[in-house]
Amino acid sequence: MQSTCLKRGDYAPVRPGDLRSPCPAINALANHGYLPRDGRNVRASELLNGMNQYGLGTVFAFFLTHPIFLEQKRKDAAVKCSWWNIMVHPFAYAFAAFGLRNPGQINSGGVACLNLNQLASHNVIEHDVSLTRLDAAQGDNNTPQPELIDNLLTSSSNGKTITLDDFVKLRRQRYEKQKADNPDLDFHGMRVQIACAEVAMILKVFGDGEEVSIDYVKAFFRDGRLPRDEGWSKRKWWTLGLVELNTLSSKIMGLLGPPGEGAVPIANAIH
Q1: What is the dihedral of CA 14, 18, 23, 28, to 10 degrees?
Q2: Sequence-distant (≥ 6) Cβ neighbours of residue 19 within 8 angstroms
Q3: In this predicted model, what pLDDT tens digit does every residue of 20-31 receive, in sequence order?
Q4: Which of 94, 172, 194, 215 could pair with 230 as two cysteines, CB 3.0-4.6 Å apart?
Q5: Maximum Cα–Cα distance across the chain
Q6: How far is the C-alpha of 167 from the C-alpha of 156, rounded, in Å?
Q7: Cross-strand bridge partners of residue 112
Q8: Residue 270 above 90 pLDDT?
Q9: Is the pLDDT confidence value at 201 over 90?
Q10: Contacts of range 138-144, beta carbons closer than 8 Å, 24 or more positions apart
């Protein structure tokens, strides 16, 4: 009943029975009705169009969206590697590791779809040492944890914004905490790259690349909504692309990586 009274773009919090993902950006799109509000049978075209709300470039949004709609690889299945396979299905071959869709998973119209909770599949795009969620080995790796969100908000060194240095410091603290608490911790290589890119996106989408308003962070992570009421709006004159994001993400990786107490093992991330 609630969803029939809401227009696309209107915010409504999650209802009992709705499905959500570990990704706050995707969850916010569902909470605003840019994706199905119940989180079920989401199509790639809906997610791609929704990414426009963050001011992302078309190519960047495509690479964030379409790989997860590939069928997931069976862990016991042999990888068919041949020049013919690569030539005929280059995209599927290159991004097979990111597929989350169940074999044959389609909606009533025959279109490939996903439920948002499928994004919680461990070590596909979800990873350990989340800033706001538990590790998979600790149980629920999908639900935001109020205590971790509070830690994120109080990481601000000036009480008004969360800076790049604040994020780096918090990421190191989370890594040390999870090293102690999770004997099955798996945070290296591509997981570190994804984690750094997530921080870069927060700083670039909601801030100027150096800091982001704590009010924006609170609305986004605690309420699961776009911080429009707080004054935020997406970019008007240019979109966020892969090169711009990768530049900042690489900077974050460099700040995390130098040897020393609390350093994240990012050396493996380049392999």
Answers
A1: -40
A2: 38, 39, 40, 115, 116, 117
A3: 999 999 999 999
A4: 215
A5: 57
A6: 9
A7: 106
A8: no
A9: yes
A10: 138/181, 138/182, 141/22, 142/20, 142/21, 142/22, 142/117, 144/24, 144/221, 144/222, 144/224
Tokens of 166: 């604040």
Are residues 194 and 125 in contact, defined by beta-carbon separation less than 8 angstroms? yes
Q: Decide: 36 and 42 in contact? Cβ < 8 Å.
A: yes
* pLDDT, averaged across the chain: 88
Mean of the pLDDT values across residues 61-65? 94
Give alpha helix (H) positions in 78-236. 83-88, 90-94, 146-153, 164-181, 190-206, 214-217
Three-class secondary structure of residue 180 per DSSP: helix
8 Å CB contact between 103 and 129: no
